[in-house]
Amino acid sequence: MNDPLQALLCNPGVWRGRAGQAVPAQPSGYPWLDACLPGGGWPLGGLSEIVLDRYGLGELRLLLPALRQRMEEGGERGWLIWIAPPFIPYAPALADAGIPLQRILVVRTSKLSEGLWAAEQALRSGQCAAVLLWSDPVSLSAMRRLQLAAESGACMAVLFRSARALGEHSVAALRLHLSGSGLGLRVHILKSRGGQPVVLDRPDFPAP
Amino acid sequence: MAKSQEQSLPLFPDEPSGSAPAPTPASQIPTPVRATAKQQLWLALRLPRLALDIFAPAQDVVAVVEGEGSQRSLVACNAPALVSGLHAGMGLNAAFALAPGLRVLERDPAREQASLERLAAWAGQFTSWVSLVAPDALLLELHGSLRLFGGLSALQARVVGRLERQGYQVQQGVAPTPLAALWLSRAGRPQPPLTDAGSLVSRLGHLPTQCLGWGLKQNEQLDRLGVRSIADCLRLPRDGFARRFGPPRLQDLDRALGRMPDPRPGFVAPQRFRAEIELPAETDSSARLLPALERLVEEMVGMFRACEGGVDSLDLGLLHCDGPPTRISLRRLSLTRDRRHILSLLAGRLERQILSAPVLGLTLASGMIRPLAGPTRGLLGDALDEDEAAVPMLVERLCVRLGDAAVHGLCLVPEHRPEAAWRRNGRNAPGQGREQRAARPLWMLDTPLGLEQRNGQPCYGGPLRLIPGPERIETGWWDGGDVARDYYQARTIHGECLWIYQDRRERNCWYLHGVFG
């Protein structure tokens, strides 16, 4: 009696919500976050967009455990590329976090288009564990290009944008909004493929 | 019957031989047959249109001419010119009458020779034995390369296909002796490869005497004798033949048939690549330079493959009508011979280059060729992959487009001053590991940002809450950059975590130095 049902469920045209979708993901190292992300972590082969009110909320610390693991597993193909970061990524702090510095590349750009171009090149090179891009504003078509480039590989692609972007439509696979108050970090998952919007408050988010 | 031919032919030049060409028994030629020591298979590549092909391909009606005054005549013309009814050997005036829009290029034998030498170096990627036959042919010994490239037809298609893609017109011939291969290549229509030494006589016999390349005068002489094919030649008595045409001609025949050794000098590739290509028309669009650039890069990469080398510096020059050439230099590349990579680097630079004047031609010169091992292949013979991919390529692509200073790495420096504890590029200091010290922020500001103060307390968009326990850094007195600072972690009311310091020598100055991202 189950057979017709199974046959129906196997039909790729039938959408079943969250169940049965295996999303490649990299565990973030924070169980409270993983529990709310489809696949149990940062999506691989898809763009993650992090919308920030301001820098210094812990946006990098949120990524570090995942980055470290991706770089370790990637070996020679585990490069970490920073494109147009707002400040200098500080080497001693990265070394303290266990990130292999010899496979880090920082790219400075003078134009937004250069940053997008560099990100696309890096994503398509197949040599990267993760590509971090700071770019604002990003047009929808540019974002779609990034998403396509991210899908071509299996690396973490993270786009950081300012809170102005909240009103805009996004094609990213995952979209987070980080905000802070005296109470600590608030992670608002705005969009995740196969997941639901959720607000996470972490007053105890690890202090530096 | 053999006897009668021997007597009749040389003595009665006007009398046609009449008899059907028959395979000549070896006994008729008294020279001892010497089997070649090692089996060989030669591919002759003839470039009949070399005079034209040394110029970058053009779309309009173009012809190359040579000669003086009224003797000026066409040497070669491109496809649109052929369509207009022009052909090689035609007088220049007649050509202009047929095609008023004809663009005329002067023949340049020195450049043809240089181009042929570059192609010989390029062909070194397919075999270790390339020989140059002036003025327009190359000989490649293929027997040793057959297995590597998957058989004769695959290798032949590969060589000829690449040459044609570069814009050269090619005629080819394959035979166990170099001369036979050359003669086959001159046959006019494509000849199936001749791989069996036993059928040399019968196959070559069909070729007309024009294929011998002995010059117009001797062709006429042969014609008067009624000798029209090589088979006819072979039927002539040896001593008479040598008397009439000279012993070298007889040796030619013997060499072609493998009865005499035919040593060919191998071409020795130069230590650097240097080439110049002239554009058919001057252009000020960098996109129109690309086809010419592609050809130069293909020739260069072929040469690198031949000598298992690569380069780390390249110079591209854009030649202008007057004024010095525009130079584009790529330096400090990782050693490479990847065609696509080199092309994308050069094209990237070319794209950003503002052309000050129309470009007439391109020059490409490599630095010293240095040994570069090929990629490792699987035991089961994975496909031949000539492109080696690696991160340095990504870095180079980024550097070329964004500038060298735009891309850097990170490394540690053993130093207590936070701003001096890292460096953009270099090697990590040995023995560096995690130190027991207070936490460092992930973001560092380029220059510390002065903070305003309220009631003696630092502010950053609101009052800051300092986390107690400053970390004191007081060092650097020996190099003039001495610092005396107390570092604090600070929280803003918005939840940001900052790294600020108080300068101990100016007690009231607070600075933001980092952000705990």
Q: Would you mind describing this structure in some detail?
A:
The complex is a heterodimer of chains A (208) and B (517). In chain A, 30% of the residues lie in helices and 28% in strands. Chain A has 208 residues and is of the alpha/beta class. In chain A, helix 5 (112-125) runs parallel beside helix 6 (140-152). Chain A starts with a helix and ends in a 6-residue tail after the last strand. In chain A, 47% of the residues are buried. By secondary structure, chain B is an alpha+beta fold. Chain B starts with a helix and ends with a strand. In chain B, 35% of the residues are buried. In chain B, the strands form 6 sheets. In chain B, strands 18-17-22-21-20-19 form a 6-stranded antiparallel sheet, with no helix packed on it. In chain B, helix 14 packs parallel to helix 15. At the A-B interface, helix 3, strand 5, helix 4, strand 6 and helix 5 of A face helix 15, strand 14, strand 15, strand 16 and strand 17 of B.
Can you lay out the helices and strands and say which pair or pack?
The complex is a heterodimer of chains A (208) and B (517).
Chain A: H1 2-10, E1 25-26, H2 31-34, E2 42-43, E3 46-52, H3 59-74, E4 79-83, E5 88-89, H4 91-96, E6 104-107, H5 112-125, E7 128-134, H6 140-152, E8 156-162, E9 174-181, E10 184-192, E11 198-202
Parallel strand pairs in A: 3-8, 3-9, 4-6, 4-7, 7-8
Antiparallel strand pairs in A: 1-2, 9-10, 10-11
Helix pairs in contact in A: 5-6
Chain B: H1 2-11, E1 42-46, H2 50-53, E2 62-66, E3 73-77, H3 79-83, H4 92-98, E4 103-106, H5 109-123, E5 130-133, E6 137-141, H6 152-165, E7 171-175, H7 178-185, H8 200-205, H9 216-224, H10 230-235, H11 238-245, H12 247-256, E8 274-283, H13 290-306, E9 309-310, E10 314-320, E11 326-330, H14 339-352, E12 359-366, E13 370-371, H15 391-402, E14 407-408, E15 411-412, E16 422-423, E17 443-454, E18 457-459, E19 465-475, E20 483-491, E21 497-503, E22 510-515
Parallel strand pairs in B: 2-4
Antiparallel strand pairs in B: 1-6, 1-7, 2-3, 5-6, 8-12, 9-13, 10-11, 10-12, 15-16, 17-18, 17-22, 19-20, 20-21, 21-22
Helix pairs in contact in B: 5-13, 7-12, 11-12, 13-14, 14-15
